[in-house]
Design goal:
44% helix; single chain; four-stranded mixed sheet; 385 residues; seven-stranded mixed sheet; 15% strand; Aspartate Aminotransferase, domain 1; 2 domains; binds pyridoxal-5'-phosphate; alpha/beta; Aspartate Aminotransferase, domain 2
């Protein structure tokens, strides 16, 4: 059936109708009083979402642009930085750092495993003359469905005292608690097509006062992504360059929706979606790629049964039920499939995805489970939660 596509990928995520309708309006002048008002409201609510009184800047970029802005505004070529990598997006941080000539030390874990906070502690404690300028990591590693232990790693960074902490929160901001001010996180990068519930096109960078101090001496070249420009203009409720005004119409609506739901409830919903999905997948006898204690509330990575091709699962899910699941990335392409439950996703969506998955597995000849076991496990968890 046409026009029934259900996105169960970790971005772009589904967009609520109220936001779609808001974005369907004619654009307005970005130097108008009317737009200033919308921009000001969005900025206030972005701060609420980040749990900060510092700056949250909106850029016309994807998530990677927000990450790159973090690197170039607060660091200089040759700076020693620690970068955690345990998946595709951690590796992207390393690539950006390399492109700008940082002296990056990689703290690695296997794909599917969380970063070990102890490895950060050891390096930070050994750095007596405070040469480490930043610790950089991905919070929710979308390529594997692992949630790294940001809180503990951040505690070690705080004990070091000098280094900034920069976080790719592209699939965790708005799904997991990241109290920016309370924890003292310095830079948080995120993107609109994730928990923000609007299409791709806006990137957000939150900046602490400590990072602004580093900005003063950072020497990497910057122009379009010079966050000082965005900060100066945001103080006047505007942007240095033409923003995608219609995206802000949508953002205004979705931030209001999140506020109405309440931050704690938004986090609890993502946790519930994750736990329901995992309970159902286990009941189907399929191995999960990330362990329970390191699982991302945004995404669940699943290994198909040996007799079944992951690619075929995704193809049939799309063809028969119009549900889009994500492939594995890089060496995991075709080896796992990923179920996104991020943003505008509710209990009903999980039940639909799990029952469809059961039907697809049956069609593909997988018999290692009791028919209905996935749905039963999901329904049981939902009834009890
Ligand atoms: C954790 C993470 N970081 C960075 C990105 C890159 O974002 P973009 O593709 O918007 O540049 C993504 C995209 O999925 C992501 O999931």
């Amino acid at each position: 059936m046409d026009n029934k596509l259900m996105l169960m990928i970790p971005g772009p995520t589904p967009v609520p109708e109220a936001a779609l309708l808001a974005m369907a309006k004619h654009p307005m002048g970005h130097r108008s009083k009317e737009f200033d008002g919308i921009f000001a409201e969005c900025t206030e609510n972005l701060k609420w979402l980040h749990q900060t009184s510092s700056d949250v800047l909106s850029l016309t970029v994807s998530g990677t642009g927000a990450m790159e802005a973090g690197i170039i505004n607060f660091l200089s070529a040759g700076d020693r930085v620690l970068i955690g990598t345990n998946g595709k997006f951690g590796e992207r941080w390393a690539e950006v750092a390399e492109a700008y000539g940082l002296n990056a030390e990689i703290i690695k874990a296997e794909w599917g495993q969380p970063l070990d906070p102890e490895h950060f502690r050891e390096k930070l404690e050994a750095d007596k003359d405070k040469q480490i300028k930043a610790v950089i990591l991905t919070h929710s590693e979308t390529s594997t469905g692992v949630l790294n232990d940001l809180e503990t790693i951040n505690r070690h960074v705080k004990a070091h005292g000098e280094a900034l902490i920069m976080v790719d929160a592209v699939t965790s901001l708005g799904a997991v608690n990241i109290p920016m001010d309370a924890w003292g996180i310095d830079v948080i990068a995120s993107g609109s097509q994730k928990a923000y519930m609007i299409p791709p096109g806006l990137g957000f960078v939150a900046v602490s006062p400590k990072a602004w101090e580093a900005y003063k001496t950072a020497k990497l070249p910057r122009y379009y992504l010079d966050l000082g420009k965005y900060r100066k203009e945001a103080a006047k409720n505007t942007t240095p360059f033409t923003p995608p005004v219609n995206m802000f119409f949508g953002l205004q609506v979705t931030l209001q929706m999140m506020k109405a739901e309440g931050l704690e409830n938004v986090f609890a919903r993502h946790k519930r979606l994750m736990t329901t999905t995992r309970a159902a997948v286990k009941a189907l006898g399929l191995p999960l790629f990330a362990a329970d204690d390191a699982a991302s509330p945004a995404i669940t990575s699943v290994m198909p049964p040996e007799s079944v091709d992951a690619q075929k699962v995704r193809t049939l899910m799309r063809k028969r039920f119009d549900i889009a699941l994500a492939d594995g990335q890089d060496h995991l392409k075709g080896k796992i499939f990923r179920i996104g439950h991020l943003g505008f996703v509710g209990d009903r969506d999980i039940l639909a995805a799990i029952s469809s998955l059961e039907a697809v597995l049956r069609e593909l000849g997988h018999e290692g489970y009791t028919p209905g076991a996935g749905v039963a496990a999901a329904a049981k968890f939902l009834a009890e939660s």
